[in-house]
Amino acid sequence: MIAACSIAGSDSGGGAGIQADLKTFTALGVYGLTVVTAVTAQNTHEVRGTWVLPPGAVRAQMETVADGFSIGAWKTGMLANAENVRVVAETLPEGAMLVIDPVMVSTSGHRLLAEDAVRDLAELLIPRSAVVTPNIPEAEVLSRMRVTTVEDMVEAGRRILDLGARAVVVKGGHLADGAAVDVLIDRDGELRLSGERYPYSVHGSGCCFSAALAACLARGVPVREGFRAARTFIDTAIREAAGDVGLIRIVNPGGTIFHSR
After folding, report:
1. Mean pLDDT score of the chain
2. By the 8 A CB rule, do 123 and 88 touch?
3. What single DSSP character describes residue 44?
């Protein structure tokens, strides 16, 4: 059984976080495991409240799923605070395949990662990652530079790569004009993928993209191929989204994304 584990917050609206990750894993034929870091009261428009779980609860969940399952990939989303960043770094199995979605602020503007936790994320978790998947605001924080063009995305990705990641995907959805461009930067260079930009925003697209990439890696797909597959998956999900309520629609690809190993 191919399994992947999401370490993230619970979204009561089901559009992002743990719920979106599980839907994505299932759509891509991967058994989903979860480690809940926080409980949120939210829908597609707002976050009304956040309750962070204590580090001991996060550690116990990680240890329990690691003891009971063979986990092909781990994915982090909302980690909430420095204490939980540190406990994830301490508990993550050696050599784990790790995708980091450095969730800092919700789509509606609610802070999801304490400012003092960013340094721990950069120093303790990013050096252990197979891929880091920041959007432009997150890439600006991690790279300490302003990002307004695709070339800026590449440079920011290189700076995040220098933190120790094996690969970085900078997502270009926040660029003002033109096609939606995502850029993968790794030790071999860069890969740019473009897609259609839709006239609406959707809740949870970053979670779904990183979960799709983690599902690919869990199945043994190489990072660059996984990037292409995850991009195809999320493009379809955004195209089929319920744009009037900002809710992404996860579509089962019917085996067209990749073949089981």
Report:
1. 89
2. no
3. S
All domains in the chain, ordered by first residue: 3-239 (3.40.1190.20)
Q: Kindly tell me the sign of the dihedral angle through the C-alpha atoms of 168, 169, 175, 178.
A: positive
8 Å CB contact between 197 and 235 = no
Q: Which two tokens stand for residue 206?
A: 């970053």
Of the two residues 245 and 59, the one the predictor is more confident about is 59
Report the C-alpha gap between 258 and 20 in whole angstroms. 20
Burial annotation 27-63 (CB, 10 A radius, 16+ → b, else e) = bbbbbbbbbbbbbbebbbeebeebebbebeebbebbe
At residue 38, φ and ψ (nearest 5 deg) are: -160, 155
d(CA 189, CA 169) in angstroms, rounded, equals: 12
DSSP-based three-state secondary structure for 37: strand
| Burial (Cβ within 10 Å: 0-12, 13-18, ≥19) of residue 77 | buried
pLDDT per position as a tens digit, 214-233 = 999 999 999 999 999 999 99
Per-residue pLDDT of 146-159, as tens digits, reads 999 999 999 999 99
CA distances from 257 to 123, 142, 208 (A): 34, 31, 14
DSSP secondary structure of 61-101: HHHHHHHHS-EEEEEE---BSHHHHHHHHHHSPTT--EEE-
What would you measure as the largest C-alpha separation in the chain, in angstroms?
Answer: 47
Q: Is the pTM of this model over 0.85?
A: yes
Neighbouring CB atoms inside 10 A of 69's CB total 14
**What whole-number distance in Å separates Cα of residue 178 and Cα of residue 224?**
24
Phi/psi at 67 (nearest 5 deg)?
-75, -25
